[in-house]
Amino acid sequence: MRKLKLIILFLVSFSLVPLIVGCAGGKTYESTGEHFDDSIITTKVKASIVGDSKLKVLQIGVETFRGVVQLSGFVNSNEAATRAVDLARRVKGVKQVNNSLIVK
Prior knowledge:
By secondary structure, the protein is α+β, with helices and mostly antiparallel strands. The protein has one domain (about 25-104): Histidine-containing Protein, Chain: A (2-Layer Sandwich). The protein contains 3 helices and 3 strands; from the N terminus they run ααββαβ. A 3-stranded mixed β-sheet has the order 1-2-3. The relative contact order is 0.14.
């Protein structure tokens, strides 16, 4: 009976290894935790841009990968682009901001 329990425990443990490894990240993809963190950063950056009284623009896209924020879309002036980058940099967790904003 004891031997059977050990075998079952081994098989259960061995079957959980792929699940745990599947949550790990690599160079080109995020782990589950990193994806969740990046989603929060993206939401905070979008909220700060939309909530800013100096930026009256909704045409800015925000994507985040491992703390690096990519801003894309259209703005009316260079000042608006600079302001959007500054707002993104102020969000906790942002490591870098890549500015791909186009001035109309």
